């Protein structure tokens, strides 16, 4: 395998810097996965990936999820808002 040239390395660094620019700590990023799902980055160590229909079903239940979480708040583990 040949060593990358200086120009190739410089281009790769610029690409990586561009990807990380504008990302704030705690922000969420969305990407389409190789298999066609929607991946959410920034919630934890690993992305959360669901297919279109799964996201729609989950989002349709947003109010019920919030109600459930409030009703069970005393049993739920909380992390710092900055984590």
Rg to the nearest angstrom? 19 Å
Main sheet makeup = 3 strands, antiparallel
| Neighbour order of strands in the largest sheet | 1-2-3
Structural class: alpha+beta
Mean pLDDT: 88
How many β-strand runs?
3
Q: In which range does the helix fraction lie?
A: 40-55%
Order of helices and strands: HEEEHH
Description:
The chain has 83 residues and is of the alpha+beta class. The chain has a domain at 28-78. It contains 3 helices and 3 strands. It has helices spanning 6-20, 52-60, 62-71; strands spanning 29-32, 38-41, 48-50. Strand 2 (38-41) and strand 3 (48-50) form a beta hairpin. The longest helix is centred in the first third of the chain and has 15 residues, at 6-20. It is elongated. The relative contact order is 0.09.
Give a brief description.
This protein has 83 residues and is of the alpha+beta class. It is 41% helix and 13% strand.
Question: Could you give the topology of this structure?
Answer:
Blueprint (H helix, E strand, L loop, with lengths): L5 H15 L8 E4 L5 E4 L6 E3 L1 H9 L1 H10 L12
Antiparallel strand pairs: 1-2, 2-3
Keywords:
41% helix; three-stranded antiparallel beta sheet; alpha+beta; 13% strand; elongated; 83 residues
